[in-house]
Specification:
The protein is α/β, with parallel strands linked by helices. It is built from twelve helices and 13 strands. It has three domains: 106 residues, 2-Layer Sandwich (60s Ribosomal Protein L30, Chain: A), CATH 3.30.1330.40; 125 residues, P-loop containing nucleotide triphosphate hydrolases (Rossmann fold, 3-Layer(aba) Sandwich); 89 residues, P-loop containing nucleotide triphosphate hydrolases (Rossmann fold), CATH 3.40.50.300.
């Protein structure tokens, strides 16, 4: 038998029973899934909580998950001035028949405790309508890390140019306007919000006109330089899933995992057509198909950081696959 000690940590927003239990469950599930563990492999678990957490014992989450025969113990973490508040830590003792490499798991703000061990960066690239944002959002939620939608940033710039009466294909219209443009993607009550120069444009950026303007401004190197800098600054600070066109090839060439999601143009057009129909917009299927083909051409033929599968990215064709199936495939790739 081989013996191991596995570390994990997560933060909560509030000292509140349901959140403490759900975040502890998330951390335990990640430790178990990423390391392919079974309950019989776990010898004991020690939980610590910072002094600002006392609404419930974190070990109660493990009991609810059926770890009834594993010795569990909760302690208060030693308080050191300036230390990370609202943090739950785990030390799990493991015994395995064969030697293995195990992955420690640090989630939420706890990533800052051990960025050397814990930083998880996932790049998802692919053409429009391949399912990137749906998959990236769900995956980030399951992993307890940030989702950054880089397409929303290009859309915000595209919208600004349209609002100013400019032509998004003309660098002379675009470049003078982007210099002082402020684009922010942030989360409020779990929902992604996009701000352009301080104004909420979350819904406005989802029109078909803005889709093609985003694709057009994305061909201009000065736009890419500005947004890539912003994206890298965010990735520097935190674990995240980032989706776009050039994430694995250019923005995060050292990402932990790179996925290239694709689907046939017809399937992608069908998805967009259905989405629009559900929102009450009646458009010919062929119009959508032509728009998708045009955007593919724009995104993959531009000279600056074109849409391309990184050599070390895993190709997943989502044609005919359910969202759950794709998420499972990616989760399996994350296991050590
Ligand atoms: O993913 P999306 O449909 O929201 O992206 C809108 C457009 O923005 C897309 O056609 C190309 C551009 N884009 C880009 O060039 N690079 C990225 N990383 C993300 C999007």
């Amino acid at each position: 038998m081989k013996f191991y000690a596995l570390r994990g940590a997560i933060t909560v927003e509030q000292n509140e029973k349901d959140e403490i239990l759900s975040k502890t469950r998330l951390l335990l599930n990640q430790l178990i899934e990423r390391n392919d563990l079974e309950n019989k492999d776990i010898v004991s678990i020690i939980f610590t909580a910072t002094k600002d957490i006392d609404a419930v014992y974190p070990a109660a989450a493990a009991r609810e998950m059926g770890m009834t025969n594993i010795p569990l113990m909760c302690c208060q973490e030693m308080y050191v001035e300036g230390s990370l508040p609202l943090c739950i830590r785990i030390l799990m003792h493991i015994q395995l028949e064969k030697e293995r490499t195990l992955q420690h798991v640090y989630l939420g703000k706890a990533v800052t405790l051990r960025p050397d061990l814990a930083k998880l960066t996932i790049a998802i690239d692919g053409p429009a309508g391949a399912g990137k944002s749906t998959i990236a959002k769900l995956l980030a939620e399951k992993l307890g890390i940030l989702y950054l939608d880089t397409g929303a940033m290009y859309r915000a710039i595209g919208l600004k140019i349209l609002k100013n009466g400019g032509d998004p294909r003309k660098p002379e219209d675009v470049i003078p306007l982007i210099k002082d443009t402020d684009v922010k993607v942030q989360y409020e009550h779990g929902k992604q919000k996009v701000y352009l120069d301080g104004q909420d444009v979350t819904d406005e950026i989802r029109t078909r006109q803005v889709s093609s303007a985003a694709s057009d401004v994305g061909t201009i190197p000065e736009v890419r330089k500005k947004l890539v800098e912003l994206q890298r600054q965010i990735a520097e600070r935190t674990s995240l899933v980032m989706d776009g066109r050039d994430i694995g090839t250019h923005v995060m060439p050292n990402a932990t995992l790179k996925i290239f999601l694709t689907a046939s143009p017809e399937e992608r057009a069908r998805r967009r057509w259905k989405e629009l129909k559900e929102k009450g917009t009646e458009v010919e299927f062929d119009t959508i198909l032509q728009e998708i083909i045009q955007r593919d051409l724009n995104d993959s033929s531009r000279s600056c950081a074109p849409l391309r599968k990184a050599d070390d990215a895993v190709l997943i064709d989502t044609t005919g696959k359910s969202i759950d199936q794709v998420i499972k495939e990616i989760e399996n790739l994350l296991k050590v």
